[in-house]
User: Fold these one by one.
Assistant:
Number 1:
Amino acid sequence: MSDTISVNGKLQPLPTDPRTSLLDFLRHDLGLTGTKKGCDHGQCGACTVIVNGIRINSCLTLAAMHDGDEVTTIEGLGTPDNPSALQKAFLEHDGFQCGYCTPGQICSATAMLQEIANNWPSDASETLEGDMTATGEEIRERMSGNLCRCGAYANIVAAIREVAGESA
Ligand code: FES
Ligand code: FES
């Protein structure tokens, strides 16, 4: 037990209150408000962050359960001056309107593209083995946990496909 958690490459002490969700820890304790609280019940994906390379809903897990883990939030993916490829593509493709769901969409898409690169199948995959490609169908299935109240889905898929190297 180290009682620390790495957030965007910086070691942080875990919260003293063991009931603190990872989402509240990031937003309230660390001031990383890019990660959004939508439903707080695991239903919208607005709170998605990447833990040890895997995307999770930070509202559904306690910070204390992540002793020694590496967390990446939207702030850790890029900055306005130096955006990640997906952040840039979302801008170029108008992948957002109000922007509330966008950090969760981008964190989710970042890890999701890695899942495809790892050839992990989804419900939309025709086989369980072999090379996976970022088709529109695969992206829609794999991103189905990230809701957008503004309905920017078509542009979100186009942005992700561009980064995946598929034609939009
Ligand atoms: S706030 Fe976590 S899934 Fe909605
Ligand atoms: S851009 Fe508004 S909720 Fe998705």
Number 2:
Amino acid sequence: MLNLRRFRSIFLSLLLFMMFFVPQISMAETLDNNVPDARPAASVPILKSAISLPVAGAATTNQLNSARWLVHKDAVEGTSKLRLVIDTSDPVIVSSTLDGNGPQLVLDIKGAVVGDLDDSITLDGQIAEKVRFIKKDGNNSQAIVDLPAMIDDGDYKVFTLKSDTANKKSFRVVVDINKPVPKVVYNFTPGLRNKVIVIDPGHGGSDPGAIGPNKVQEKTVTLGVAQKVKAMLENAGAKVLMTRQTDVDVYGPNASAVDELKARTIVANNNKADVFVSIHINAFSNPTVGGTATYYYQKSNYDALLATCIQDGLVATGGLQDRGTYPAGFYVIKRTTMPSILAELGFISNPAEEKLLSTYQFQQQMAQGIVQGLDKFFSQAAKRGGGL
Ligand SMILES: [Zn+2]
């Protein structure tokens, strides 16, 4: 649960967002103003085959007429993406594939030939190197984007836009490529033995977190669950570090939200933890809302995997509604350098869940879910091997 102390920093973030992000959106609008892309990249469904309208069978007069690009920076998240826009006279069907040998992103453009545009265009060099336009036959063409390093399916999307006569825009093919995340090499091995795991029980001391209708405090539940997770993990041979072991503030009483949260990330970063798990309980104005959700910040290819594994574990052992996993910019998951998640175990504002969460038995089930999730994570991460 986000508390009032944190509200101020959220408000400031929103202000920053308004100051920086909005003007840059309008910069992007000079290219395309009706692009369905306001959410963080990680949460956008990936459209790998973009279809606008049926294409005529006979030899076409439809052409790739021009192409342009820009890099869009998100001042809040610190991420950036390259957008490439290709104008076509009429609708086309586009499919895309990644070729690791290139490394390249290959777009097959059905229904349009290469028109009067440069054979190749140099791009920014960091996110993508250049795009080349190639004739396939009398009806079809290809656009091949050369990349500095191979990317994942989740790192790009391709879609088409209809013509917009009011704004004098033709049919368009749009390609968004996210800037690669910093390369941190992980070599996870299966099993919990000798893993360094930081458990962060949310809130504590002067900060109770959310409080339920029957006065159960979030900080008490998160510590109860965290202590049980610690015991189970240590039984399995893991090294566990807790950001707090008792009902205290981690930084100090009544510290600023950032100092308090930073103190928690330092525990993980200074001890070179393998993973970081922050435990919270949600709250909402409607008391009937309930369920479990897990949040991650995509710093590596392992953050979303960790979130999925722990969410699955919590839902399996706790049996509350599965609210899913989501990317989010919470401080503790963003500023820890290792894969990390923030789990909202249930809703303290829901009287039934408040009661459950305060029991030893249910806290034990939640802890079991987190431990199962961690075990599953390390075995799946080991299969992925090193790399990002
Ligand atoms: Zn909380």
